[in-house]
Amino acid sequence: MSDWYQLEVEAALRELNSSSELGLSSAEAAARLEKFGPNELVEKGAKSPLAIFADQFKDLMVIILIVAAIASAVLGEVEEVVIIMAIVALNAVIGFSQEYRAEKAIAALKKLAVPTVRVLRDGRLADISARWLVPGDIVRLETGDLIPADGRLLESINLRAQEAALTGESEPISKFITPLAARNGQAPPLGDRRNMVYMGTAVSYGRGTALITETGMQTELGNIAELIQGVEEDQTPLQRRLDHLGKILGYIAIAIIVFVVGLGLLRGEHFSNLFLVGVSLAVAAVPEGLPAVVAITLALGAQRMLKRNALIRRLPAVETLGSVTVICSDKTGTLTQNRMTVTVLDVAGHSRELATLVDSAGYIHNAVLKPEAAPEERSLDLLLIAGALCNDALLQDEPEGGRRVMGDPTEGALVLAADEIGHSKAELETRWPRLAEVPFTSERKRMTTIHHSPPEDEFAQAPWGRQPYVAFTKGAADGLLESCGHYWTGDEIKPLDEAARALILAANARSAQAGQRVLGVAFRGLDELPDTADESAVEREMCFVGLISMIDPPRPEVKAAVRTAREAGIQSIMITGDHPLTAQTIARDLAITTGDRHLTGHDLAEMPAGALQQIVQDVPVYARVSPEHKLDIVQALQDRGQVVAMTGDGVNDAPALKKAEIGVAMGIAGTDVSKEAADMVLLDDNYATIVAAIEEGRNIYDNIRKFVTYILSSNTGELFVMFIGPFLGLPLPLLAVQILWINLVTDGLPGLALAVEPAEKGIMKRPPYHPDESILSRGVGQRIVWIGLLMGAVSLLVGLFYYRQDPNGPWQTMIFTTLTLAQMGNALALRAHEDSVLRIGPFSNRLMVIAIALTVVLQLALLYTSIGRRFFGVVALSPADLAIGLAASALVFVAVEIEKWLRRRKN
């Protein structure tokens, strides 16, 4: 049953065969525990660690690498086998840790859901573990308690629950016991079911009694656990692109072996030699260094992001950030400060922003007791004093500095506002000690406290003259006005006529329409202490002072981050459980939207299947949504081909965080569940950090594309030499061991150097790469082909020149050396896609300089040491020959630079 909120209290008790006076008997509780099971979240279908590890070897690129290792073993290249298998092992360990970590999300939910509770059993209260609760139990709730299971409230004494982690609602929810009706046949959102309490939330104020209606996986928190476990994580764009590339290279490798062996046999060459060369070329075609370079690139990127307060929990997320097209952001604590703040004060029809009063150095401090002060100043001062005194919140100094609000966030905002003007709560309560109070109730929607007036010599300065006591009341403005007969202008008390009432209500409506929470404040002077048991004896003939408007304000840095994201072709969408008016106000302030278009959870529930996908990108704000709705929105965006980053901090965000390509949790305000489900955690809860991470992700993907361009163009050059050489009358141009040497030396350090290349200018001024776009798109494929052909042609022409002079001369060594050095020029030129290396500075990437220098030294050592010559079948080149090889290889660098210059002119 899911409509407990519709039932009267007695009907709910009958439905569960329970008693509000006696609770359940121990025998009945035991029977129900047997039937329903423990009140805990159950992990379903979890993979064993062994199964998770085995899954890491199913990827095609990994299979190709294993085949390459076997081929290298056949060739006797032990070093190559060790390197390749080390790469395979590294990938397996990384993949295992990522997937194993994802399984911990449910464990975090379990931890969240097992408090100790006070339950009524056999007519007596007992403290038991929440694991043993069953439907029908009666539990007592007090301030600070975690709600142990879902329940229908039987009693609410000023009870307020903090449900932000579950619903996204920024303010504590006032609870009552009155039944609720469905709206147009649709259940109200969780945040509006104010006669219910839910597992995983907490009591922030008051006390109450609840009838447990659902436990364990049947609770709303259990429903979220089901959603988390039901979400299947898709491959990241990089994984899809590398898989696609791997398939292409796999087919090429097979074709090479068949072609080389077949062509050699037709030429009458020995099969064993042909097979070794064919397998060597196949290994050359498959860039076995690519997974290692990608893994290292992502790891280095993750380290750089950590310095910018973004903790990466899943390495592929580093690159995926660069492909993000939509950021779906929660409002509370992500776009906003998660701190209610007083913004506007309105007295006698005059509105003032609190910020302007603070900036003016607290000139209204104690103005209420200064007859010479301006009337407006006296009203503003009294408004802030009354708001802080009629209040149960406190400011607590933190050991590390700063202060923290203890109590209700709304009341905390009033205390902070008064403090910023110069009225500390402690000082006010010393001068205006509280003597009695009428507590807040959801029916009256207000609270009243009674205080001594200031010292006797200041009596005459107060608006109520020499009366020794004063009552301050704060609450909903429209209800409060019903108890007021006068209003204070700052220098006199006037009757509250219809014109004044209309003025106050208009100001209240303006603030409410702007998505702000509005409280009215009134006072009444007293000659003697009244009986607070009779609230009407206190809250009558009061004098209205003014209105206080407040809101959870946007983070100051977010607006610029949203603008930067827009310039980068990334759409920002707000998805929140908060009120639509509040959501729209924040969204407009941050330029997420310029209009009023939004959808609520109710709208989504009534929408026919498939309709959301058609409009999802046209709606910038979603309000009052449930966890299922967040998941639906992310899925609809993904169905439209978008790469989604979903931010959040609550338990309710976890399923959508896991479903999105990039789940971004808040490190400070986030729950353990959201962090475990996320790919990235913001250590500073700063939305701008997401944009910085996206920039880093784009740079990483750019660098991976540079490495792919470099390594495949180099491999293409090798293949061209081996294919075309025989048609020019040359024997096999390169030995198998020479091919493996080129791959080992040139793919290593230069590839890693490309991985740390700084970001190119304008990286956040271009649209993101489409998730289905090949890694070889945007000219990369053509560049690989023409550079490879040029590199191969230059090497072959040099070798052919020497071969025709002397077939027994150093022609093969010249091809080998020219091809190796040409790849160094290629690596240097490919440091930038469009900019000239001369413009960005040849030494701006020191690792590249070291890599090229070391590769050249190793090549020279191979040529000029007896061990190198004997093992690799080369001869020592004369200085003139070496100079010719170096000059020929430099043509590749010059050609790539000219091509980039032509592209810049075209653009």
Automatic annotation (TrEMBL):
Record EC number: 3.6.3.8
Topological relation to the membrane, as annotated: Multi-pass membrane protein
The keyword Membrane is assigned to this record: yes
Subcellular location: Cell membrane
Main subcellular localisation: membrane
Family membership noted in the UniProt record: Belongs to the cation transport ATPase (P-type) (TC 3.A.3) family. Type IIA subfamily.
The organism's taxonomic lineage, starting at the top: Bacteria, Bacillati, Chloroflexota, Ardenticatenia, Candidatus Promineifilales
First-level EC class: hydrolase
Protein name: Calcium-transporting ATPase
Cited InterPro entries: ATPase_P-typ_cation-transptr_C, ATPase_P-typ_cation-transptr_N, ATPase_P-typ_cyto_dom_N, ATPase_P-typ_P_site, ATPase_P-typ_TM_dom_sf, ATPase_P-typ_transduc_dom_A_sf, ATPase_P-type_domA, Cation_transp_ATPase_P-type
Transmembrane feature ranges: 57-75, 248-268, 274-300, 707-728, 734-756, 784-803, 809-831, 843-865, 871-896
Record-linked PROSITE patterns: ATPASE_E1_E2 (PS00154)
GO CC terms, sorted: plasma membrane
GO biological process, one term: proton transmembrane transport
